[in-house]
Amino acid sequence: MKKVIFIGYMGSGKSFVTKNFAAKLGFRCLDLDEMIEKKSGMAIDKIFSAKGEIYFRKLEHELFLEVLNIEENLVISTGGGTPCYYNNHELLNGEHVTSIYLRASIDTLVARLKTEKQKRPLVANLKDDEEKEFIAKHLFDRSFYYNQATFKVDVDNKSIETIVTEISELLA
Fold first, then answer.
1. Cα gap 50→139, rounded to integer Å
2. How far apart are CA 163 and CA 73, in angstroms?
3. What are the helix and strand counts (H, E) for the chain?
C-alpha cells in the first residue's frame, strides 16, 4: 500500500495540500493532528498545557506508526514536529512511502501564523517581535529532519492547485 506523507513547519499548508492531493489521487486523507485530538479528546493546545509536550510527542509517534501500518493507500498530513521526535524521520522514506517537505519562508510562516497563534501552543505566547526569530531558530533546528523528505516543494506565493500539480509531476 502506498503512503504519501506531508511534512513541514506549522503554517506551511500541510493540511490543505494533503486534502487536495488525496482527492486528486482518490486516496483517503488522514491528518495526524486531528487523529491525536480525537484519540485524546482534547485540542492540541489543551494537550500541551494539561499533559505536556512529552506526552503529546509519544501519542503522536504511536499514531504515526499506526497510520503507516494501515493496509490502504493514504495521504498523510503530519504535525510540524512529527519528523523531529522518536526517530520518526527514519519512517519518511522506504518501500511504498514517499514524503514531501512543504518548504515555506520565514516571512510566509509568520504571516500565516498571525491569525492562528492561539491554536499553536509553540507560538501562542510569543510577542509579535519574538515570533520571527523563534520560527527562524526552530526551522534551523528542524531542518535536518525536514530535509530527510523524499521531495522538497517550495510553497511561497503559490496556490494549493499549483502546489498539488507540482507534486503530481514529481511523483509521475
1. 26
2. 20
3. 7, 5
Question: At how many degrees (to 10) do helices 53-68 and 44-51 cross?
Answer: 130
Q: What is the DSSP string of 82-135?
A: GGGSTTGGGGSSBTTEEEEEEE--HHHHHHHHGGGGGG-TTTTT--HHHHHHHH
DSSP SS3 for 30? strand
Grid coordinates 485540542 are at which residue?
43
pLDDT digits (tens, 9 = 90+) for 101-157: 999 999 999 999 887 766 777 777 788 779 889 999 999 999 999 999 999 999 999
> Among candidates 82, 62, 102, 60, which has minimal Cα distance to 145?
82
What are the strands of the beta sheet with 28-31, ordered from one edge? 28-31, 74-77, 3-7, 97-103, 151-154
Query: Which residues fall within 8 angstroms of residue 18, CB to CB, at 6 or more apart?
Result: 6, 29, 31, 75, 76, 77
Distance CA 68, CA 51 (A): 25
**Kind and range of the H or E element at 153?**
strand 151-154
Q: What is the pLDDT of residues 71-103, one digit of tens each?
A: 999 999 999 999 999 999 999 998 899 999 999
Give the global pTM.
Answer: 0.94
